[in-house]
Design a protein that fits this description.
single chain, alpha/beta, six-stranded mixed β-sheet, six-stranded parallel β-sheet, 29 helices, 26 strands, globular, binds adenosine-5'-triphosphate, UvrD-like_ATP-bd, nucleotide-binding, P-loop_NTPase, UvrD-like_helicase_C, hydrolase
Length: 789
C-alpha cells in the first residue's frame, strides 16, 4: 500500500511538473527572446572557454621554454605544468554536443552562504522570499552543464551537473520546490541554442528577474526526451533526470547500494550517471577504477557511449558478464538445463575435485627413479599417491602446492637413501641434506618426473578435461545427477565458450592459482660470491613498483563495482564478480521480476557472500537482502501505458502480487495482435515492415532463443533499423517498436520463461505487435492465451 502511494506520488509529480509548464501558446516573440537570452549566455561561456584554452596553450609554451633552462627544479616544474595544461586542454577541446543544457531560477536562500562552486548552498527559501501578494524576486540564476566553468572573477558561469548546487535542478518538483521557481532545459547544438523548455515549480508565484516577469515557454523536457526516436545507442538523460533517480545517483557510496525498479524505470541510465557522479565527487578514491558489469555484449555496445558524453572516459570499464576473463570471450549459449547446472553453487565442489583430478591426466607417472650419492633411489605408486594426497589436503591453490610436493618427494627420497642417520651433528646433517637436495633436484629425471606428475594446470586444461563424461561423472559424484553430467560434458566439447563457462574458468583460476612464475635468477656478482651474499639473500622477488605496474596492467580489482541486471547473475557469476570487488563499494541494480535465473534464493545467498553481507538471523523471504541501502524506482519512462498494461498481465502470472511501475505517458496506440498464417517468416516480416513505416527509429523482433538464426534470415534486406534478437539478448535494450514472436514459445523455453517474456514485452517505446502461432492458442482477435484477461 505504502509502495503504491509512493509510486503514485512519483508519477503525479512527474506529470504535474509537465502540466505546470504553461502550455498555452506562447507568442513566438517570447520564445525568440528567451532563446536569445540563453544564446547570449552560451556565447559568454564559449568566450571564457576560449580564454582558458589560450591560457592552457600559453602554459604549455611557457613550460616548453622552461625546459631549456635545464635545472632539475625547473624541469620538474615544467613536467607538472605540462601535465596540468594537457588535462585542461583535453577537457575543453572535448566537443560536447549540448554542453550547456539547464538553468534554474532560484529564490533567496535561508542563509547567505556560498559553496565551493560559487553558488548559494541553502535548499529552502528565506522567510519572506515569497511576499504575501505571491510575488517574489529571483535572487540567483544558475546554468547547468556537463562541466563547470567559472568566469574570471570565479563566479559560476556553468555549474557541473554533478555539483551539489546542481541538485535542485533534478530534485525540485511542484510538490517540493525548494528555492526553484523555474527549471529550464536548453537545447543546443554546437554553439547554437535551438530551444528552451520550461517547467514551473511554483506556478502560484509571480516571479520577477531584474524587474521583468519570468517568462515560461516550451513543452517540458522530459516528455520531449521520451518521445524521441531511438537509435542503436543509448543517450544520456542528464537534462531530465527525475527526483527519485537523482537520489540514487548522488547517494553516498556505502558498502552496498541496492536499486530495484521495474522495466524502463531508468536503472541502467541511473547506474551510468552514478558512475560519472562518483568519479566527479571523489576522483582519488575511484582512481582504482569503476567496473560496470552488464548482462550482454549487446547492452555494452548500447550503453558505452553514455559515459564519454558525460565527460568521463578511462576510469570506467563496462564489461559483459561473459567478457570478464581476459582472453576468453563467451560466444555460445547453453540450454536452460545446462546453464542451471553450470551456474549453480554446486559446481564449486565439482571444480575443486576436477582441479585436483586433472593432475592425474596424461598418464601421470607411477614411479620415481633417481640416482643420488651414487645410489638408485625409487618411490612407488603407493608412496607417490600418499604424498599427493597429503599435499592436496587443504584448499590451497593447486599450482602453488607444487613446491610443497617437491619438498615431500625429496624428504621421502632422502629417507630412502638412509643418509639421515649418518651424522649426529646437526650442522653436518643439514649440510648433507642440502647437498642431497641440490643433487637430486638438478637431475633431469627428477625434473621430468615433476613436470609430468605435478603439471602446471590452466583453467582451460581442466575445463577441457571435464568434457569427458566418465571423468566428469567421477568428479561430480553425488553433486550433479547423471543427466546434468551428460549435458555439461557435452556442452564443453563444443568449440568456444558460453557465458556460464566464463565463470567456471574464473573459478578455476582461483582454485589453481596463477602458475608459478619462473624465478629470475639474479646475475651472479663476483663480489657476492666472495662474501657469501648469494646464500644469504633470497632470490630476487618482484619489487613494489613492478608489482604495482603488473597489477594495473592485469586490473582485476576495482574500487566500485556496479552490477546491472543483477537479478540474472548465477551463484557462480556472483563469485566471479565478487572477486573483482573484494575491497570495493557496490551498486547493485536489478528487477527480480525480470530474472532469467531459476533459483533466486540460491543466487541471493551467493550475492550476499560476494558482497560480504552477513546475516545474524535468517534471510528475509524471496531472496531479498536486508542489508545495505535500498532504493526503489517506480516510474516507467520507456513504455507507454498501453504496452505497460499488457506486460502487467504477464507480470501477474510470473510473479503474482508484484507491482508494475506506472507508465509516465500514453500514446493512444494499442498493441497489435497478428497470427501466423502460412509461415512465421511472412507474417513476422510483414509486421516488421509495417512498423518500420510507422516509427522513425529502430524495430526489434524478439523470438525464442532457438529461433535467432532463423529470424535473422526472415528480416534480411529490411535494412539496419530492424534487428532480430533472442529473448535473452533483449535484456536492457529498447526499440521504438517491437514484434514479439510467440509468447508461449518464449515462456516455455525455460523455468524462468514467463519472466523472460515479461522482459520481451517491455522493450518498446512506442508500438508493439505480438505475433501468435498455433501453440499460443490465439482467440478470434489474435490475442494469445497468455495475454488474455
Ligand atoms: N529521467 C529521464 N529522462 C529521460 N529519459 C529517461 C529518464 N529516465 C529513463 N529514461 C529513459 O527510459 C528508458 C529506460 O531506461 P533504462 O534502460 O535505464 O531502464 P531500466 O530500468 O534499466 O530498464 P530495464 O529493466 O527494462 O532494462 C531509456 O530510454 C532512458 O533513456
Amino acid at each position: 500500500m505504502a509502495a503504491q502511494a509512493q509510486q503514485d506520488s512519483a508519477v503525479d509529480s512527474v506529470r504535474d511538473s509537465a502540466a505546470d509548464s504553461v502550455r498555452k501558446s506562447v507568442p513566438d516573440s517570447v520564445r525568440d527572446r528567451e532563446i536569445s537570452v540563453e544564446q547570449e549566455h552560451l556565447d559568454r561561456v564559449y568566450r571564457r572557454l576560449e580564454e582558458k584554452i589560450h591560457e592552457a596553450e600559453f602554459l604549455m609554451n611557457d613550460a616548453a621554454q622552461r625546459g631549456q633552462v635545464g635545472t632539475p627544479g625547473a624541469l620538474a616544474e615544467r613536467d607538472a605544468q605540462v601535465f596540468r595544461a594537457g588535462i585542461h586542454l583535453n577537457r575543453l577541446n572535448n566537443e560536447f554536443e549540448d554542453f550547456l543544457f539547464g538553468r534554474i531560477d532560484l529564490l533567496a536562500g535561508r542563509d547567505g552562504k556560498k559553496g565551493p562552486d560559487g553558488a548559494y548552498t541553502a535548499v529552502e527559501p528565506a522567510e519572506g522570499a515569497v511576499r504575501d501578494d505571491r510575488t517574489a524576486d529571483i535572487a540567483e540564476t544558475l546554468h547547468i552543464g556537463r562541466i563547470g566553468v567559472l568566469d574570471a572573477e570565479y563566479s559560476p558561469l556553468v555549474i557541473d551537473w554533478r555539483a551539489p548546487a546542481a541538485a535542485p535542478f533534478y530534485r525540485s518538483t511542484p510538490a517540493d520546490p525548494g528555492r526553484v521557481v523555474r527549471r529550464r532545459v536548453i537545447r543546443s547544438k554546437g554553439r547554437q541554442v535551438l530551444g528552451v523548455e520550461d517547467d514551473l515549480m511554483r506556478p502560484e508565484v509571480r516571479a520577477y528577474l531584474d524587474g521583468e516577469e519570468l517568462a515560461v515557454t516550451g513543452d517540458g523536457a522530459l516528455m520531449a526526451a521520451l518521445g524521441q526516436a531511438r537509435t542503436h545507442t543509448m543517450r544520456d538523460i542528464v537534462a531530465s533526470i527525475q527526483a527519485e533517480q537523482d537520489r540514487v545517483i548522488r547517494a553516498p557510496a556505502a558498502s552496498v547500494t541496492f536499486v530495484e525498479g521495474g522495466p524502463g524505470t531508468g536503472k541502467t541510465a541511473v547506474a551510468l550517471h552514478r558512475a560519472a557522479y562518483l568519479l566527479y565527487q571523489d576522483r582519488r578514491r575511484y582512481s582504482g577504477g569503476i567496473l560496470i558489469v552488464s548482462p550482454t555484449p549487446l547492452l555494452v555496445a548500447y550503453t558505452e557511449g553514455v559515459l564519454p558524453s558525460l565527460g568521463e572516459e578511462g576510469q570506467v570499464a563496462i564489461r559483459a558478464i561473459g567478457s570478464l576473463v581476459d582472453g576468453a570471450e563467451a560466444t555460445l549459449y547453453d540450454s536452460p538445463a545446462t546453464a542451471r547446472a553450470k551456474g549453480s553453487a554446486r559446481m564449486l565442489k565439482v571444480l575443486r575435485k576436477a582441479a585436483r583430478g586433472a593432475l592425474e591426466l596424461n598418464d601421470s607417472p607411477t614411479r620415481l627413479r633417481v640416482v643420488a650419492f651414487g645410489r638408485r633411489l625409487e618411490l612407488e605408486a603407493g608412496e607417490l599417491a600418499h604424498i599427493r594426497d597429503s599435499v592436496l589436503g587443504g584448499t590451497a591453490p593447486v599450482n602453488l602446492l607444487r613446491p610443497r610436493a617437491r619438498r615431500l618427494l625429496l624428504d621421502a627420497l632422502y629417507e630412502r637413501s638412509g643418509a639421515g642417520t649418518r651424522h649426529s651433528d646437526a650442522e653436518l646433517a643439514a649440510e648433507l641434506r642440502s647437498s642431497f637436495d641440490e643433487d637430486v633436484s638438478s637431475e633431469d629425471a627428477f625434473l621430468a618426473f615433476l613436470d609430468a606428475w605435478w603439471p602446471e594446470l590452466t583453467p582451460r586444461t581442466v575445463l577441457a578435461a571435464m568434457a569427458d563424461e566418465r571423468r566428469l561423472g567421477r568428479w561430480a559424484r553425488r553433486v550433479l545427477n547423471p543427466g546434468e553430467v551428460r549435458r555439461v560434458a557435452r556442452s564443453l566439447r563444443r568449440e568456444g565458450w558460453s557465458v556460464h563457462d566464463i565463470a567456471l574458468l574464473d573459478e578455476l583460476h582461483a582454485i589453481l592459482g596463477a602458475p608459478a612464475r619462473p624465478r629470475r635468477r639474479r646475475e651472479l656478482d663476483p663480489l657476492d660470491q666472495l662474501t657469501g651474499l648469494e646464500e644469504l639473500m633470497p632470490q630476487r622477488e618482484e619489487t613494489q613498483r613492478e608489482r604495482a605496474e603488473r597489477l594495473a596492467q592485469e586490473r582485476t580489482e576495482y574500487a566500485h563495482v556496479i552490477v546491472d541486471e543483477a537479478q540474472d547473475l548465477t551463484p557462480m557469476q556472483w563469485r566471479m564478480v565478487g572477486r573483482r570487488g573484494r575491497h570495493a563499494t557496490w551498486t547493485v541494480v536489478g528487477d527480480p521480476a525480470q530474472s532469467s535465473w531459476s533459483d533466486p534464493e540460491e543466487a541471493a545467498e551467493a550475492r550476499d557472500e560476494a558482497l560480504n553481507l552477513r546475516y545474524a538471523g535468517g534471510r528475509p523471504a524471496g531472496g531479498a537482502s536486508s542489508r545495505g541501502r535500498r532504493f526503489m524506482l517506480t516510474v516507467n519512462y520507456r513504455n507507454p501505458a498501453e504496452i505497460a498494461d499488457l506486460a502487467a498481465k504477464v507480470l501477474a502470472l510470473a510473479m503474482p502480487g508484484a507491482e508494475s511501475p506506472s507508465a509516465v505517458r500514453s500514446t493512444g496506440v494499442e498493441p497489435r495482435f497478428a497470427v501466423v498464417r502460412d509461415s512465421p517468416a511472412d507474417t513476422v516480416r510483414a509486421e516488421a515492415a509495417r512498423l518500420l513505416e510507422r516509427v522513425d527509429g529502430t524495430v526489434g523482433v524478439v523470438v525464442a532463443m532457438n529461433r535467432r538464426e532463423e529470424a535473422r534470415r526472415w528480416l534480411a534486406d529490411l535494412g539496419e533499423r530492424v534487428v532480430a534478437l533472442g529473448s535473452l539478448e533483449a535484456k536492457g535494450l529498447e526499440y521504438d517498436a517491437t514484434v514479439v514472436v510467440s509468447p508461449a514459445e518464449i515462456a516455455d523455453e525455460s523455468p524462468a520463461g514467463l519472466r523472460v517474456l515479461y522482459v520481451a514485452l517491455t522493450r518498446a517505446t512506442q508500438q508493439l505487435t505480438v505475433v501468435s502461432a498455433e501453440r499460443d492458442v490465439p482467440d478470434a482477435a489474435g490475442v494469445p492465451d497468455l495475454l488474455r484477461d
